[in-house]
Predict the 3D structure of the following.
Amino acid sequence: MKALRLHRAFEAIWGTPAGWRGSLATVNHSTLGVRLMVTAFVFFLIGGVLAMLIRAQLATPGSAFVGPEIYNQLFTMHGSIMMFLFAIPMFEGFAIYMLPKMLGARDLAFPRMTAYGWWCYLFGGSMLLVSMLLGIAPDAGWFLYTPLSSKPYSPGINSDFWLLGITFVEISAIVTAVDIIVSILKLRAPGMSLDRMPLFAWYMLVTAAMMLIGFPPLILGSILLELERAFGWPFFEAARGGDSLLWQHLFWLFGHPEVYIIFLPAAGAVSTIIPVMARTPILGYGWIVAAILALGFLSFGLWVHHMFTVGIPHLALAFFSAASTLVAVPTGVQIFAWLGTLWAGRPQMHLPMLYLIGFLVTFVLGGLTGVMVAMVPFDWQAHDTAFITAHLHYVLVGGFVFPMLAAAYYWLSHFTGRRYSYTLGKAAFWLIFIGFHLTFFLMHLTGLLGQPRRIDTYPEGVGWTLYNLLSSVGAFVMATGIALFIIDVLLQLFHAPRAPRNPWRAGTLEWAMMQPPPSYNIASLPQVHDREPLETAPDLALSLARGEGYLALPRNGWRETLAVDTKSGRIDHIVVLPGNSLLPLGTALVTGSFFLLVLLKLYPWTLLPLAGLVVLGWRWAWVLGDKHAHGELPIGRGDHAPIHAEVRDSPGWWGSVFLSIADGSLFAALIFGHAYLWTVAPNWPPPALVTASLPVVIAGLLGAALAARRSSGVTVTGAGLGLLLTALLLTAFRLAPSPTSHAYGAVVAVLLAYAALHAALALVICCFARARRRAGYIAAINGAEPRIARLWTDYAVAAGAIALACTHLPALLS
Amino acid sequence: MTALLRAAAGLIIWAIVFASLYALQGLACALGWDKWQIAEASLARLVLLAVYTSGIGVLALLCWRYRPRVSRRQFLDRLAFAGAAAGLFSLIYTGLPVVAASICR
Ligand code: HEM
Ligand SMILES: [Cu+2]
């Protein structure tokens, strides 16, 4: 039995050792994906309980169930948990579990990052839970508008919990997004060109790219607001040149793309399931790819529709109203592709299909009310009423919860290896569906009757009483449905008979393996010829298990998978992935202690975890790689390839590129904030500008030029960075006005700090590259490491030069 | 990677022009350009119209460059054209308000 021998050999390399140490150190994507999904589901249940409390409070007029203080915490935590701790981690976990399998790879590109992401999420989420248990949870609404959330109006620690906890969780989202993008672009089975990728991978590619651009503005906003709350830097305080609308811009620059970030992965699941249910290939693959690309971009042009009522000029209103109606087009393209596929095929009413119908009905209704509120005059009426709450739940529950329930039933046997027996799932569906529409359809009506959102109580006799009662009844019906779903899944976990392989007779690669999947996914990697490899080769799973594909021979105890050329899917190199390690947990703990110290206002102590992060980061990169070259290694089927340490565009390089894009998005948001305050905020110009100094600028630019030169050695680059850093620090500490005096000083301080931080980081990276070269690591000589050091140096140079220009130029010119 | 960039090119241009229009609107009002009349229109409107039409021009050119041809039958070529066309249509539609809407009120 060749297959069994291979299984044992690969399991020895890829497996997780038993015991708690193994569980803490594992970097396996299947394990971590499931962990993320389970954690996210627990948060869904917690958020759901909060929703029930909200509905209990609103069931009757004048209710004294909870007071306003608690009620504020209830809806804030419900919204924040559902958005940040349920929806995003849920689809991340799903993608982490599923993507490598669909792409024909053995793991994601950065397994330790995957683990780090999960730990950060767990710790950040726990911080928020602790605040709730202590009764000091955030209470300024899920978008934490200033000035309500600023110090004078929210003096407690509640908002700090939100700002720090959510930022912590966002770190996890950013690293996961990088992980996902690089895996999709590079870690695919040979022959899987871009146009043969499963649609789900396209959806996740666009989603992850959106996360890289969309999340940094919120991270920036949170940092600024925390700085304002902690040190009185007045970014959002009008009296000192700040502007609370800046918060709204930064929040919704993130917040609107966010809803598409949540919807797209679910739509990806829909696009995967519908053709299988309809027993026909998806209609309009190319149209769908174009539509999601367009959606990815357009969704960044709508954020101001959340601000229609703040008093902005007609022209801006019209821009964003137009863009908001426009996104309906690519969404419509997808819906027609799905309907067309159903029409062309012979749809079978399996359980996933039932949930998909629930999705289509609910989501389309949500889309319609979406177009309604995109109309400015209507929005002026409906803004901040229960109508909006109804709309957002139609989109979020319709566009995410229903598809994810369909996905759960569709892929359950993949996770469990058990056959689904058709019992409770149908009843659960009807309870959820009817309960949902009862709850939220009526909220449209109460909204139109004028019931504001976020009110803890309302008087009798304004005509909202009956609707609210029925709404609350609906919510409890829905909760019963969810409970039934849980029981159903548990029953299946423990009682159902074993399932045959590929029970739905689907065509994508995730079914070409054992169920549940082994730690290494596939004993050999397939050669892909079309979009549905299992359609043409139904026995692929067996042949892969027998080792008839690539990389079938375990070697050196390495965790190997293949990287391909992005466009064509030609074999590029072998990626040797890192094994289990406690570094992710350690790094997440140190990161967490930083946030905790800030929360407790022990600022001097934060230097400890910051230094710890530098040490750990160093170690993180140091433990990889070899000191001797391997050259071209055999990969089976007569082919050869080098390992990633010996090529210039390794996954590490691409990871750096995409991380720097996210970093650039944060910097761009900062520049936007600066320009915005300068042109729009009241109480400008500031009392004093930076004292311009030509020598400092020239010294800084000279340093930048030195560091940017390709031909100079590490010493010159380092000296250049040092000079740039000095110029930035001199400006910050000697020439700039105090950050507390005026928003100008505050923004300048952040700009300079950002640039100085990057200069220092680039210095560390250059030292690292040099130490590695001295130590004789191949990756530092022939591989990508010098290139990565160059990238971060160039980034630091650009950021430094821009920061110097932004701070000195205005004063030089005036 | 360049193939993907080409596929996104039209939409990237849309994003840049759309952001510029919004930014210029803010700037024009801050600098009072809406009060400078030139012929029938204000300076603010003329600037915005210039950006709008040149954006359309660039995107139209891009569509022409990426137009479907026999030698370009590949998926990513068609995607590049679709992206450019989507960018063009999006700009025409979302930028249309510069023609008539009041700029600073
Ligand atoms: C399980 C069923 C759910 C019920 C019964 C429910 C109920 C509610 C209610 C009644 C409110 C309004 C509170 C108020 O305005 O006073 C609300 C707000 C909200 N819900 Fe839900 N919800 C559910 C699921 C979800 C899901 C799945 C998501 C997101 C994925 C979500 C996201 C939100 C958000 C963002 C808010 C706004 C919070 C705020 O105003 O700060 N909800 N929910
Ligand atoms: Cu929105």
Q: What stands out?
A: Residues 131 and 306 of chain A are 28 Å apart (CA to CA). The radius of gyration of chain A is 27 Å. The pocket of copper (II) ion (ligand 2) is lined by residues A 256, 259, 302, 305-306 (CB under 6 Å).
